[in-house]
Amino acid sequence: MTGRMSEEMKPGSLSLRPLGTAAAPKPEVLCIFGTGDLGRSLGQRLLQSGYRVVYGSRRPHSCGPLPQGAQVMSHAAAAQSASMIFICVHREHYNFLETMAPNLEAKVLVDLSNNLRKNMYPDANAAYLQRLVPGADVVKGLNTLSAWALQNGLLSGKQVYLCGNSAEAKQAVAEMATKLGLTVLDRGSLSAASELEDFPLRLFPEWRLPLKVAVGLTAFFFFYLLIRDVIYAYVEKGNDISYRIMVSLANKVFPIVSLIMLSLCYLPGVIAAFVQLYRGTKYRRFPDWLDRWMLCRKQMGLLALGFAFLHAIYTFIIPIRYSVRHKLISRVVNEDNETTPFYFDNTEAWATDSFYVLGILGLFLYVLLGLTSLPSVGGSLSWREFSFIQSKLGHLTLTICTTHGYIYGWKKFLLPSTYKWYTPPGYMLCLIVPSVVLVLKVLLLLPCVDRTLTRIRQGWERSQPREEMGDSKATNL
């Protein structure tokens, strides 16, 4: 036995190769029709992901600069070298595909085309392509990617859509997209291609809900404060202070909207946590309204940052306004040109300094949150670092800004003159939502909350009829 082992271990009996050469598979070849900005950017990204890229061109020797490492040849030769072909040309140039239909038999054609406007053609580009090349498997997808995003590598976590009649073809495209760092969502058969081609034509689709909320809050508080401050002074006291609309009134609306928008970024997360505790699981889907709310938190936060910037700029110009300078001079010099004493209040000094310091710190953290939400910055952070900034520092920002608002109000809520026409001031209304968010966040940190919600859920389950309980258990199993 020892002799047999020694024979097996002889150098001549072993096949010695450099480490890793035997296990290294050949990279898959992918073909791209189109050498424009989109085609070049996609090819560069595919090369970086480990694929071999072959371009098909009408003029292989004069098609312009291509990514280093890619090959270029005629359309027919390029199509024969790959099983997946990306169509990065406009619909009006599809005619050449019909003439080379035999070369595209059983190939996967990924249509990335878009139109300049809706209903530009009677049918979808992908459906038209499928009719031209009936022997190929056409998949509509990746059309929401821009050349700029591909060049800068801003693809991590980005959602793309696919549709097609062949499940195998869609699976192959989905695997390729996943290697690029994309998140794939299957929209069904090729009949959904028209919907996918309309996606890039939508104007800021992810910003619509946050913009509606911001515009609604701005309009409400503007007219609310206009009635409380300007109209009230004119009706009750006969004072015309309409000049305050441009700066003073706007400088009250901006911080109110900013603080509410910031709190709306963290309120859905708190609601989701309570829902998960109540259900006893984190693997059930949230309601659609909560899903939609959570998906637009980034946009709400950036709008809150924009309103905070406006508030800071408006605050800087307050000392140079004519009305403010006139008021300061009138406090010191009376009508007889005599100076009046101006007493120093230590408590007021502390409150004012604390108010401004918290405002500065809040704006600094606002900017930090806004910068890390950008893909180019957030992509350089680990998930733990990103979560720490967006969650821990985010709640700290909300706490500081809320305290900033409370110090602004100070003891004013105790004065009857604060409630003009029996209405509370705007800063009191804007503190409701952030205060609720912070209180709920503190409750989540208490262990008794989990036990209480568990008892509530168990009591609700016991109160259900036996048939419903049986169905529920069967569903869970």
Q: In order across it, which strands form the biggest sheet? A: 3-2-1-4-5-6-7-8
Counted beta strands: 8
**Element-level helix/strand string:** HEHEEHEHEHEHEHEHHHHHHHHHHHHH
Instruction: Give me the secondary-structure category.
Output: alpha/beta
Mean of all residue-level pLDDT scores? 84
Q: How many strands, which pairing sense, and closed or not: the largest β-sheet?
A: 8 strands, mixed
Backbone CA Rg: 32 Å
Number of domains: 2
Contiguous helical run count = 20
Distance between the termini: 56 Å
Low-confidence stretches: 1-17, 466-477
Shape: elongated
Q: Secondary structure elements and their pairing?
A:
Blueprint (H helix, E strand, L loop, with lengths): L1 H7 L20 E5 L3 H12 L3 E5 L14 E3 L1 H7 L2 E4 L7 H5 L8 E4 L13 H8 L4 E5 L5 H6 L6 E6 L2 H13 L3 E4 L6 H6 L9 H30 L10 H32 L8 H8 L1 H20 L5 H11 L13 H27 L2 H4 L4 H27 L16 H5 L1 H13 L2 H17 L2 H11 L1
Parallel strand pairs: 1-2, 1-4, 2-3, 4-5, 5-6, 7-8
Antiparallel strand pairs: 6-7
Helix pairs in contact: 9-10, 10-12, 10-16, 10-18, 10-19, 12-14, 14-16
Explain how this protein is built.
With 477 residues, the chain is of the alpha/beta class. It folds into 2 domains: 29-201, NAD(P)-binding Rossmann-like Domain (Rossmann fold), CATH 3.40.50.720; 205-334 and 346-458. The chain has 20 helices and 8 strands. The chain has helices at residues 2-8, 37-48, 75-81, 95-99, 125-132, 147-152, 167-179, 193-198, 208-237, 248-279, 288-295, 297-316, 322-332, 346-372, 375-378, 383-409, 426-430, 432-444, 447-463, 466-476, and strands at 29-33, 52-56, 71-73, 84-87, 108-111, 137-141, 159-164, 183-186. The protein has an 8-stranded mixed β-sheet, with helices on both faces. Helix 2 links the parallel strand 1 and strand 2. Mean pLDDT is 84; it is low at 1-17 and 466-477.
